[in-house]
Write a structure and sequence with these properties.
heterodimer; A: alpha+beta; Archease, Possible Chaperone, Chain: A, domain 1; 2 helices; 7 strands; about 50% strand; B: tRNA-splicing ligase RtcB; 8-stranded mixed β-sheet; 19 strands; globular
Chain lengths: ~150, ~475
């Protein structure tokens, strides 16, 4: 994980997992909110054991998140979408194109890999202490995952 | 006496008796009622070492909350509510919060007694545990043997274990010895999303992962002979303890309703101290919709434990002989919200990681246990023993009829993995004669005994403050981990 000082512009996204009593906290930093969503996708994929990962899929899928919520709510919604996709569809997004339409709608195109079996380690992404903040040179966020 | 430990919230607490701490309602702005914690010195230090107390204080700020809110001695930080938290809300001006129930709706425990003694099964323990692990799907994923269509799922949601009785997978005795008869009223299948159905469709009769298990137990010690006789417990008797819940279906129901209520919070005239406490007035459309969906998920969970019971009965007959029986002692939830009468008022009691513990004279205590108390099962960590208790009447006044639910984690999963490997944990358990089957050595390490609080201490506090009385201690002979 790269490290930038508090006032430096972020040149790339990064993340870390912080172990807690009965959960895992995902900390994210990125130059922009769309890149933060991309980094959250990559971080989630890291949790999937390699032996579950099957064939790459050429299929692109589209997802829209709107309604009366904010950037935090939409980040949590996307992570919960990943939980569902890995459990029911056995499909893990690994490449995403993210459009944060005027901060009011999140539009995601994703390409992924098939999973040989469901991945259900993460039960849910929660709003517990979740945040997305603007910071110098980018954005940072945090979401607690129920594992 | 005021203790000055860990955090401002802990510092605001007064110790009002040996095992009772209280944070007064005036301690922090927004608190509507006091917060009470049942703990001895050591458990208090553990509870005040994470955000459990802050979360309990946040719960005390919610509208319509009844004085006081409680944390059980096994409490630890949860999502919104602390795990081990109990709070009641008035029917008229109170709320319902999915976070106050938790993601695993109606996670719970059931105890089944066999007609065999430990000596009878000693030579058959290895094949018994092996066959249980083969017959009861465990670990991550679906893989249940009972895949239901939408109509069948609807019947599970609305009639609970009665549906399995009709299909020959439950007995009348099972239904009579399950909390709420294995069916919570008011279930509304229409409130279950297509996503929740998809996650739950093939998971009935599966254990799941994490701290879920099926254990073969030996009755190690009897504390209360009269109560043990009523429950059918005898020294060295062999029993099965099952711990699981509503699987992916319950998780999705919680996710769906937290999101729905979070989006609607701006329409209410109160501000939440924590977004994960997203809630709705009990009488609102959203509140009623969640209650209906939660009841459906709770019924699914009771059916899940019943199907596992059905599978386990077939295994014990196959391994221990056709005359081998598993009689259900009781099945009780520890993640649910229920409308109950307390102190003359109808309230919605949220128990998140807390077990209902009704006393000998409560009308919902099963007839067979009238005069004894409703059974309460407290699983310890693997290898440290579990407890059978019975609820006490004074628990109605002291905890809305609730007790603890387990030992409670004290170590993160990563810390547990770093302490010892799964293989080492398995070897240590084997050296103590405990047969273990677990789909993942990594998860075995995460669930190691030292990752949990001292269950003996937790149960002793519960008994001293009068919530429930110890009947027997169980020792694990075999463990099938989820």
């Amino acid at each position: 994980m790269s490290r930038n000082g508090p006032s430096a512009s972020l040149t790339r996204a990064d993340h870390e997992f912080v172990d807690h009593t009965s959960e895992v906290i995902l900390r994210l930093r990125a130059p922009s909110y769309p890149e933060l969503i991309g980094e959250a996708t990559s971080a989630f994929a890291e949790l999937v054991p390699p032996h579950k990962i099957g064939r790459p899929s050429d299929e692109w899928r589209e997802f829209r998140f709107d309604g009366p919520t904010d950037r935090v709510g939409r980040l949590v919604d996307w992570l919960n979408e990943l939980v569902y996709l890995c459990d029911v569809d056995q499909w893990l997004p690994v490449e995403v194109e993210v459009d944060d339409v005027a901060g009011a709608e999140l539009h995601i195109r994703a390409r992924g890999v098939d999973l040989d079996e469901p991945f259900v380690l993460v039960k849910a992404a929660t709003l517990q202490n979740a945040f997305v903040h603007e910071r110098a040179g980018g954005v940072e966020g945090e979401v607690t995952l129920d594992v | 006496m005021t203790r000055t430990t860990h955090s401002p919230v802990a510092a605001a607490a007064r110790r009002i008796s040996e095992d009772v701490y209280e944070i007064p309602a005036r301690a922090f702005p927004g608190m509507r009622v006091a917060a009470r914690v049942y703990a001895d010195d050591e458990l208090w230090d553990q509870i005040s070492g994470d955000r459990s107390l802050e979360q309990l204080v946040n719960v005390a700020k919610l509208p319509g909350v009844v004085d006081p809110v409680y944390a059980m001695p096994d409490a630890h930080e949860g999502y919104g509510f602390p795990v081990g938290g109990v709070a009641a809300f008035r029917e008229g001006d109170g709320i319902i919060s999915p976070g106050g129930v938790g993601y695993d709706i109606n996670c719970g425990v059931r105890l089944l007694l066999s007609n065999r003694s430990a000596g009878d099964v000693a030579d058959l323990l290895e094949p018994l545990v092996h066959e249980l692990s083969r017959s009861i799907p465990a670990g991550a994923g679906r893989g249940g043997k009972l895949v239901l269509d939408d109509d069948e799922l609807d019947q599970v949601f609305t009639t609970g274990c009665a549906y399995l009785y009709e299909r020959g997978m439950a007995t009348e005795h099972d239904l009579a010895h399950t909390e709420s008869g294995g069916c919570l009223g008011g279930a509304d299948p229409a409130g279950i999303s297509a996503r929740a159905r998809a996650r739950g469709r093939g998971q009935l009769g599966t254990m799941g992962s994490g701290n879920h298990f099926v254990e073969v137990e030996r009755v190690e010690h009897i504390f209360d002979q009269a109560a043990a006789d009523a429950l059918g417990l005898r020294p060295d008797g062999v029993a099965l303890l099952i711990h699981t819940g509503s699987r992916g279906l319950g998780h999705q129901v919680c996710t769906d309703y937290v999101a729905r209520m979070d989006r609607a919070m701006s329409s209410y005239d109160f501000v939440l101290p924590d977004r994960q406490l997203a809630c709705a007035p009990l009488g609102s459309e959203a509140g009623q919709a969640y209650l209906g969906a939660m009841a459906a998920a709770a019924n699914y969970a009771w059916c899940n434990r019943q199907v596992i019971t059905h599978l386990a009965r077939r295994v014990v007959q196959r391994v221990l002989g056709q005359d081998a029986e598993l009689r259900l002692v009781y099945d009780v939830a520890h993640n649910v919200a229920k409308l109950e009468h307390h102190q003359g008022e109808l309230v919605c009691v949220h128990r998140k990681g807390a077990t209902r513990a009704f006393g000998p004279s409560h009308e919902e205590t099963p007839e067979a246990y009238a005069g004894v108390g409703q059974p309460v099962f407290i699983p310890g960590s693997m290898g440290t023993g579990s407890y059978v208790l019975v609820g006490q009447d004074v628990a109605g006044q002291r905890s809305f009829g609730s007790a603890c639910h387990g030992a409670g984690r004290r170590m993160s999963r990563g810390q547990a993995r770093r302490t010892r490997s799964g293989r080492e944990v398995k070897t240590e358990l084997a050296e103590r004669g405990i047969v273990v089957r677990c789909p993942s050595l990594k998860e075995l390490a995460e669930e190691a005994p030292y990752a949990y609080k001292d269950v003996d201490r937790v149960v002793q506090v519960v008994e001293r403050v009068g919530l429930a009385r110890r009947v027997a201690r169980l020792a694990a002979m075999g463990v099938v981990k989820g």
